[in-house]
Amino acid sequence: MKKRLSSGFTLVELLVVIAIIGVLVGLLLPAVQAAREAARRMSCSNNFKQLGLGIHNYHSAYNQLPIHKGGTGSTNGVTWDLPSAIDNRQELSMIVGIVPFVEGQALWEQISNPFVAGAIIYPPMGPTPDSAGEAVGTATFYTPWSTELPFLRCPSDPGTGLPAFGRTNYAACLGDSTDGVTHGPTTNLLVQNSAVAQRARAGQRGTFVPRQRAAFRDILDGLSNTIMMGEIATDLGDRSVTTTPATGLAAADFLNNPNLCGAPGGAAATDPLRPLFWAVAGVATGPAAQGRGFRWADGNPVYSVVHTILPPNSPICSANDLGMLDNTGGPLLATSPDKNYGMMSVSSRHQGGAHVLMGDGAVKFITDSIESGNRNNPNVALGQPIPSVPGSRSPYGLWGSLGTKASREVIEAEF
C-alpha cells in the first residue's frame, strides 16, 4: 500500500510568505502616500492657477488689480482698526475683489448687496471682516465672511473649522519690506497724507500696496519675474513658527533685523529641541482666533499677506507698535494684535517649500533653500542705511528680488 503525500504548506513556508507580503506592503505604503501628496500638491497648484486667471480677468474688466485692503472706508470718523457694522474700514483683502471672477458669483451677490441678518441690515460690501464682533451662529452674524471657499483651500492643509472664520491658503505678496504693511498711504482715519504716502512709496514695493490702486503696468521688472501671491499654511493651534505669529518683538526689531524673528534666546525664539515650534517659555503669541490664514476676507498681515524677506517656511512675527499712523504721521498702537505690523513668509504643508503665483499667471514651487541674501540686513524703508535705502535692490537676494515689482533687478537664476 502506497503512502499518501501531504500537499499543504509547512509552518515555516507560511511564515516566509507572510513576511514577504509584509515587506511588500511596507514598501508600497510610502509610495501610496507620496502619490496622494503629489495629487494634493497638483490640486493646490491648480487652485492657484484659477486665482491667477481671476486676477487677470479682473484686470481686463477694470484696468487695475484688485485693491488689497480696499472697501467702503469709515463713515463716522473712527479709526480703521475698530470693528464696525456699518462699513468695512478698508480692511478687505484683494481676494474679495476677485470672487466673481473665480466662480463665486452667488457669494458675490450676497457681498455686493445689502445683507439681512436678524434685525441688522448690513450695507453692500459688508462690515469689517471681524463681523462687527458678532458671535458665530447667531442670527445677526454676517455669514459671507465666514464662508469656506474650496478654491482658497490647499488639499494638503488639514486646518478646518473654528476658531477660523473662513480659511485661505493663498495670500497677497506685498514685497520685501514690512514698513506700512497695515495701512499703506493712509492714516488711522483713512486719510491720504503726504508723510504717510512717502513712507508707503519707499517701503511697499510688492505687486499689491495696501489701500492703493495698482496695475500690471506698474510691474516694471516684468510679470514673469514678480510674485503676485504666495501659499500659506493655516494655523492648527500648535505654536508652529510658520502659522502662529510671535508678538514679543517691536516692529522696529524685525524691520531692522529680520533674523531676530526666531533667533535663539530672544523674545521670539524657537524651541531648541523642536525648532519648528516656538519656545513655550518667554515667547508670546497672538490670540487663538487670530491664526495664520483664518479670514480670507481680512487684509491684515496675519490673515492674507506674504513677504519675500525670510525664505519659505520661516518663522513669522507681528508687533503691537507702529501698527498705524495718525494724521501727522506719528505712531499709534493698534487696538488688536491682528491689526499689527507683521513679517509673514510663505509656507505650506508640502515637503521642502511652497507655491507662489507669478504676475503672468505661472505657478512656481519655491524651495526653502532659495537664495535669500543676508537675513540680518534691514528692510528697505524711509530712513534706513545702505544697503536698504529707498530705491535699493532687495537685500534678500533672489527671493527678495522676486517680491519687488520695479527695482530693476535682473533674475539670472532658475527658481
From TrEMBL:
Stored InterPro entries: DUF1559 (IPR011453), N_methyl_site (IPR012902), Pilin-like (IPR045584), Pre_pil_HX9DG_C (IPR027558)
Signal peptide stretch: none
Domain DUF1559 positions: 33-372
Pfam families: N_methyl, SBP_bac_10
Superkingdom assignment: Bacteria
Protein name: Type II secretion system protein G
